[in-house]
């Protein structure tokens, strides 16, 4: 009987080790999580829902490490959690992009209003800006081109549209606003009188 126990214990251990060694990687869960990751990337979740996307990537990376360590049950749960977090990031990205479009639209509307004000101010100091007329016209073309470019990318890349609006405000609007205020404050040029 003692001999039977001594041979049974190694046999049971061998069966347990064989069963543990036969556990398979969670391929289906990994594929589902990868699909959710790809959807989050396509939705620009890294840009518009960075916190959720980064959390999902951390879970994904942890599951990948568990696969390398052959901890398949832990990895399986990790992929399930990563999938859910990527899906959350995708939904948050849609809301974040919508808010970014709204912000960029407001920035562009403000830019257009500021340009109209500049055009009015330019008419008020037109006689004083003879030396600056070419620069004003060049910046007018740059404004028109920049506004078109910003509107072209508004829905696909609102962050770029907002950046373009901000850049034009600094480079064109603020510059000419200061120039026109200075010209308006300057005394009128004296005309030379001929001899009598």
Would you kindly provide a brief summary of this structure?
The protein has 196 residues and is an all-alpha fold. It has helices at 2-21, 27-42, 45-48, 50-68, 72-124, 133-153, 158-185.
What do you see in this structure?
Helix 4 runs antiparallel to helix 5 (72-124) and helix 6 runs antiparallel to helix 7 (158-185). This protein has two domains: 27-95; 97-183, no CATH class. The mean pLDDT is 88. It has helices at 2-21, 27-42, 45-48, 50-68, 72-124, 133-153, 158-185. It has 196 residues and is an all-alpha fold. The protein contains seven helices and no strands.
Detail the topology: elements first, then pairings.
Layout: H1 2-21, H2 27-42, H3 45-48, H4 50-68, H5 72-124, H6 133-153, H7 158-185
Helix pairs in contact: 2-5, 4-5, 5-7, 6-7
List the keywords.
196 residues, mainly alpha, 2 domains, 7 helices, rod-shaped
Low-confidence region ranges: none
Provide the succession of SSEs. HHHHHHH
Residues in helix, %:
over 70%
Instruction: Assign the structural class, choosing from mainly alpha, mainly beta, alpha/beta, alpha+beta, or little secondary structure.
Output: mainly alpha
Strand content: under 5%
Report the mean per-residue pLDDT as an integer: 88
């Amino acid at each position: 009987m003692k001999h039977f126990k001594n041979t049974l214990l190694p046999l049971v251990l061998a069966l347990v080790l064989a069963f543990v060694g036969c556990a398979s990687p969670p391929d289906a869960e990994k594929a589902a999580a990868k699909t959710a990751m790809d959807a989050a990337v396509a939705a620009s979740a890294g840009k518009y829902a960075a916190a959720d996307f980064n959390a999902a990537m951390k879970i994904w990376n942890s599951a990948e490490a568990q696969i390398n360590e052959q901890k398949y049950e832990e990895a399986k749960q990790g992929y399930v959690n990563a999938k859910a977090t990527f899906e959350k990031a995708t939904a948050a990205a849609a809301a974040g992009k919508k808010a970014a479009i709204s912000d960029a639209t407001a920035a562009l509307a403000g830019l257009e209003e500021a340009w109209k004000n500049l055009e009015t101010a330019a008419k008020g100091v037109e006689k004083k800006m003879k030396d600056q007329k070419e620069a004003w016209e060049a910046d007018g073309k740059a404004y028109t081109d920049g506004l078109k470019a910003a509107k072209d990318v508004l829905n696909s890349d609102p962050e770029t549209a907002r950046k373009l609006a901000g850049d034009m405000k600094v480079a064109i609007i603020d510059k000419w606003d200061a120039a026109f205020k200075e010209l308006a404050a300057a005394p009128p040029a004296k005309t030379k009188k001929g001899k009598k």
